[in-house]
Amino acid sequence: MSSTNPTDPTFRSYSAVQAQTYAVERRSYPNELYDIVLKYHTNTGGKLNQLLDVGCGPGNATRDLSIAFDRAVGADPSAEMIAAARSRRGKSRSGDDIKFEISLAEECSKINEIGAETVDLLTVAMAVSQYLCE
């Protein structure tokens, strides 16, 4: 998004309008891609208890993948992106609400829902690199 602050490498300075626009305009990946990822994950011994999606933005990929997991957490450093994600909600396979938390990727271990060795699949699906926006 050209209107973000180019000196903000974590995109924490999205406005509420920018976050909502991003949520609507940013398309999800094709279901076939999710199927490939989940098939590989389970075929190599991966469990489907907890998903962690870092850099989740408005939570599009988090919601798409959460239906395969008992619990799902989306984390993003932008408060407005997390507000957009929370407003769009979502449920996991077990019917639990997806948890959306403000957090840098490097600090995800501080999220209450994330305990030692509890994440079965970690994704960085829709995170935007600052280098792509320059």
TrEMBL record:
The record, for CDD domains, names: AdoMet_MTases (cd02440)
Q: Which SUPFAM superfamilies match?
A: S-adenosyl-L-methionine-dependent methyltransferases (SSF53335)
Name of the protein in its database record? Methyltransferase domain-containing protein
The species this protein was found in? Adineta steineri
Q: Which residues form the Methyltransferase domain?
A: 52-127
Mind telling me which PANTHER family this protein's record contains?
METHYLTRANSF_11 DOMAIN-CONTAINING PROTEIN (PTHR44942), METHYLTRANSFERASE TYPE 11 DOMAIN-CONTAINING PROTEIN (PTHR44942:SF10)
Domain of life the protein comes from: Eukaryota
Return any one Pfam family short name: Methyltransf_25
InterPro entries named in the record: Diverse_substrate_MTase (IPR051052), Methyltransf_25 (IPR041698), SAM-dependent_MTases_sf (IPR029063)
Q: Which Gene3D superfamilies match?
A: Vaccinia Virus protein VP39
